[in-house]
Structure prediction request, 284 residues.
Amino acid sequence: MSALTTPRQNVVLLVVLLAAQMALVGGSARGAGPAVTLQRWLMTASSPVVRVAGLVGDGVRSGSDGLARLVAAHRRNDALEDQVRRLSTELQRGRQAMMENERLRRLLDMRETLLPDAVAASVVGANLNGQSQMLVIDRGTSDGVLPEQPVVAWGGAVGRVVMADRHQAKVWLITDRNLGIGGVVQRSRVRGVVYGAGEDRLEMRFVPKFSDVLHGDRVVTSGIDGVFPRGFGVGRVSAITEMPDGTQTIHLQPELKLGSLEEVLVVVETDTARVAAEDGGASQ
Prediction:
């Protein structure tokens, strides 16, 4: 058997000394003089061991208290982190509500200022992949929304209703290749027809070769297609391509981020829609 380690030796020695003291206490009670002398010697010899044992006990108690305080601190930290997460979530919701209120306010302003005969709608779905560029809105025939009606947002053309049921409608975006609208360069009044060319791309075609069109020019709806009121933003000139037939194709960057729209207006009575100010509200 291996030798006892020093801590174990101390414990054994302490037990032996304590046992001896108990025996001597019994003897001293009977008046044995040598027993009293031996008891005093044993108490003196055992006192360092007893002190060490007391210190060890104090250290264990101190360590236990420290561990309890550490566990409590971790719990408080977890609770604070949960509170911070909840507050961050509430703050984010508040910001989103403020942004939504701002969008709705602008939409209401546009309706009251430019299009009193329009229906406000929220975007509930989208298909922006491939050649098909389409939104789904939460208004339908029960709200007066019908096919062929134009759809706009603040200052810009969005698309045209292509299909509607009682409570929803599908809208072709102006970037869809199936849709063409009348456009005019706001600065020089050069006209053409704007077609969708896929995601985030438009082309104004049938523009005479020597027309006054410059990079950065703004193109707005001309109103000659009988669908869109005139003056709503379409896009900015990003490139110009000369065609073999003596015309130019004007490449446009859409005015609006169509894939990010959340609210739109459907112009339910085009004939009574007010003309958008080309250098006013529609210029934003």
In short: Residues 226 and 270 are 8 Å apart (CA to CA). Confidence is low (pLDDT under 50) at residues 271-284. The first helix runs from residue 6 to 29. The longest strand covers residues 118-127.
